[in-house]
Amino acid sequence: MTLLAAVRTADRTRPGPDERREGASLTWLLAAYPLWWALGLGVLAIPFVAAVAAVKLVRRKSIAVPPAFGWWLLFLLAVVLSLANLGVDPPGVVPETFLSSLPGATYRFGFYCCCTLIALWAYNLVVEGKLRREHLIRLLAWLFAVTVAGGLLGTFFGGFEYTSPVEALLPKAVAKDGFVQSLVHPQAAQTMDFLGYETPRPAAPWGYTNTWGNNFAITAVWFVVAAFCAPVKTKWRVGAVVLLTVSLIPAVYSMNRGLWLGLAAVAVFTALRLLVSGRPGGMLALGGAGCAAVLLVVLTPLGTVVQARMDNGHSDEGRAFSSERATELVMAHSPVLGFGSTRKTLGSGESIAVGPTPECPRCGGRTLGGNGQLWQVMFAHGVAGTVAYLGFALAVLWRFRSDHSAVGIAGSAVVGFSLLTMFYYNALVTPLLLTLLSYVLLAANRTTAPAAQGPETENR
């Protein structure tokens, strides 16, 4: 093909103005997420984009489905079927009726569907060349910068919070609800005292510290791809190094051991993939960066924070109790479909009489299924939901095991990260959406139109 012919082909496949506008809602959701958070919308903006995605998908003559998607549909089916058990109360939990359990179950199922619709829509846009892969990667990389900025805000101005416009419009009785507060009330950090004194743990703009840590790791993967696996100017790479270095501050001060473990696991996984693909230079560069980060933490006051966190387990016993109790109850009373939603225990692991007090508002009444995605899926949706959920992730990893491109390794790393963190992080809402978008990039890596391919998708 001559150079002129190649240019003409690219012009024909490059998305036009109308096609670019089709994915504008997804771009606005991700690019303007700090704005949605500031307004008090946050994750509530996701259903609006999901509605657009649903309309766009329905209007299509055909819908492209990514590999392993059938496993995810089986998981959604298990979620629907498990709703039949909402009125079933296993022993040792706070009694609930079908109607009292329905709002929580509806919230989870609704957001599972929203994330699914957005991911499926994004996949079709990418494979058709209407949304450049490079653009989606940069949006995820941008969210890393947003997460770091929110983390710095939470670290140094942990008391920052205010009444959002959305919160102000709600009835006071509704706005004061703890769950509603987590959705519409912007705050920089969650303040905890497990070190013996009150300390802020970054949460902005994701609502919870654990969600912040989860999204930090996912978006960091794509930030590295955007900054170091694409042809960008040297000044941008220098800026990326600076941002990654600065990000260590909120990452450490979050005292999020799950984040630290997850980042280490991602680094090891990536190093092994680089070695298997015959790129020892990349593996050594990654190892050098990791060693530099560890030294920076150890040789600065950050090391003191890490040591203090390791000496204070805080939630270890409560998590162990919740996980064991959830497994016992679902296996004994509803192994196939679970109980449709989470439940509150009567008391704690020490005594059924233990409950919340002014000094310990979170004592007692632990949420079964609230301490990790695995336990939530198992308790709420039983063995059927668990097998389908795990089957999806494992099928994705197996299907793309030979894709050693930057996108292939990054996408697999994110999916593998979700398998590790499901023991202690809940995925809904934003971590699941970001993981599914990573799956979209991974699945579309070999099937997109030429104009949608970015240079970072090539094998290296």
UniProtKB/TrEMBL annotation:
Coiled coil: none annotated. This is O-antigen ligase like membrane protein. It comes from Glycomyces mayteni. The keyword Transmembrane helix applies. The chain crosses the membrane at residues 35-57, 69-88, 108-127, 139-160, 212-229, 236-253, 259-276, 283-302, 378-398, 405-425. It comes from the Bacteria. Residues 9-21 have a biased composition (Basic and acidic residues). Keywords: Membrane, Transmembrane, Transmembrane helix. Residues 1-21 are annotated as: Disordered.
